[in-house]
Design a protein that fits this description.
Elements: E1 7-12, H1 16-27, E2 32-38, H2 41-51, E3 55-59, H3 67-75, E4 82-87, H4 92-101, E5 105-108, H5 113-132, E6 152-157, H6 165-180, E7 184-188, H7 196-200, H8 220-226, E8 228-229, E9 235-237, H9 251-264, E10 267-271, H10 278-286, E11 289-294, H11 298-313, E12 321-326, H12 336-343, E13 347-351, H13 355-364, H14 368-371, H15 376-389, H16 418-421, H17 424-437
Parallel strand pairs: 1-2, 1-3, 3-4, 4-5, 6-10, 6-11, 7-9, 7-10, 11-12, 12-13
Antiparallel strand pairs: 8-9
Helix pairs in contact: 2-3, 6-15, 9-10
Amino acid sequence: MPNSDKITVLIADDILDTHENLKKLLYFERDLEVIGSAMDGQQAVDLVKQFHPDVVLMDINMPGLDGITATERIQTLGVPSQIIMMSVQGETDYLRRSMLAGAREFLIKPFSGEELADSVRRVNKLRGDRVARGADPHPGPPSFQPHGSGGRVITVFSPKGGVGRTTIICNLAVALREWTAKRVAVVDCNLQFGDVGILLNIQSSKTIADLLKHLDHMDSELLDTIMVSHSSGVRVLLAPPRPEMADLFTGEAIKTILGKLQENYDYVLVDTWPSFQDTMLAALDVSDHILVVLTLELPAIKNVKLFLEVADALGYPRDKTLLVLNRANSTGGISVSDVEASLKRSIAASIVSDGRLVTYALNQGIPFVLTSRNSPVSKCVVDLAKLLGSQTVQRSRPVSQPISQQAEADHKPQASGWTNRLPFGRAKHRLSASAANR
């Protein structure tokens, strides 16, 4: 009978020596207990169903039912077991497939006893944190619920310019539309210099600015007349035609617009720009998930680290932000493990570099996921779309619900000039309140 005070572990590997070695590595860890062994994936699924171990050490390559398929099946059982995938190979494709299947960590053999024990404790803590928050302790990959109770707001953000944010959102929108067959909208909230229309080769005299005078009586019919259709079926709300029109927007206006879009679309993808102005904070506040884009460059990593600190201080749940590494195969002396160690966060998705294809698609105004479906960069974006559209998660709050007592300040016209527009007062209030509640 397992000791309820210990973290229970199930080992799934087709090599008997591996079982013995793993047991030896964990033998002196007083808080860990191996409660069973499986020699193939199907046996692992059966034992998980029977014993509900806290953590499963799953080998990726096993005869019959492999580790990835077994992990996918465990996701459907509704048990709180967390999966650590093990492999002698460290290819990015193995890692990506494991994460998509629902594994929480990936260990490359051989590993030390300390690495193994730390990994087991870490994924078990993730499970405990989710249970404490009342969330599903076994969520699988982060994803989004269908339109029945409102669409999902996904904001693509980076605190560093030039990392490919708009390219990602345009291709991701098309991939989501094709893979899910759901209603997908893109909102260009880069209110001064939005480029979504350029990348999708669409033009219109109607933009998001035309909604400002209708905020109190905005309906689906009005949205339909202002949004533009892309050939893929994605609907687009374009940025204002002139940079100075950005001063017309308030944070509350952005919340209202995104809330109405959420009522009409399954996925609302929001493009942004590097800023903590009120309009940008509003988009981040109401997002179900924030895809934080970075590259293997020190300025990008430094800025993302600062953003994550601010996000924590603002009270955003950690699973609200997903790190997306663009140009992941670039060489420059910084590795993915370096990035994860610096940020103390895992990369949720990686997109490889293909400068020639991406530039050609940009200049043609045709997303590369349509013109070069089998290219590595397209497959990466499709994998991200699958990650976002695979299962459901509980929505934390309605889009229109303010998260700070300062929400009424969003109604007030903002003074011109960038120094008067920095929301330090609002941010300081929110940071202090968040700190006091922790």
